[in-house]
Amino acid sequence: MSNLGGVSVIFDLDGTLVDSEPNYYEAGRQTLAEHGVPDFSWADHERYVGISTQETVADWRERYGLRASVEELFTVKNRRYLELARSSTRAYPEMRRFVELLAAEDVSMAVASGSSPEAIQAVLSGTGLDASLRTVVSADEVAHGKPAPDVFLEAARRLGAEPAGCVVLEDAAPGAAAAHAAGMRCIAIPYVPTQADAPEFATAGLLLRGGQEEFTAQTAFDWLVRSAGLS
């Protein structure tokens, strides 16, 4: 039994555990360029941070008037992303350290992500995080992606944990909203610092407005201990 009193921790993947957004942007830029949209910018990409790939490409199709089907766009973008993910995804060092601290306390952990199962596995195995993070839920496996709570509730179910005993780590407003809707506490680390004032982040138990630059494994661990009533 963990010294953290039965607390379970659920990690978002992209932008939270690993810095994969540059790969998602590049995969999206290449896909859209192939379909006649040559000027997809990083600012354009930022509006999709925290939203599943399926929902992203569906929005592209409408926003840019694309002829390709959602399925075709999804397949192309996912293939391009997987090529990048396998070779060039970086885990945030302090997040890796946090996983190690939790593992040492036998804390139950899971990953709940809007990415496809293949993309999640590519990233976790490529970074070595799969050694500690074996319970994985993709938005593809549930009815609704974030901001709906489905992925987090399914992660809790697979861990055998009550939602109230779960703490979510999230970098995006839709994910913070999903954690709140699931009845879970949240440590929020905004990937886009200018979005730190988003109302969804106001529900977080711990909001690190500076994002990953402000996050430390020890700060998060100490907050977890305090919030479990063990300090």
Automatic annotation (TrEMBL):
Entry's Gene Ontology molecular function annotations: hydrolase activity
SUPFAM superfamilies: HAD-like
UniProt keyword Hydrolase present: yes
Keywords: Hydrolase
InterPro entries documented for this protein: HAD-like_sf, HAD-SF_hydro_IA, HAD_2, HAD_sf, PGP-like_dom2
Protein name: HAD superfamily hydrolase (TIGR01509 family)
Organism of this sequence: Streptomyces violarus
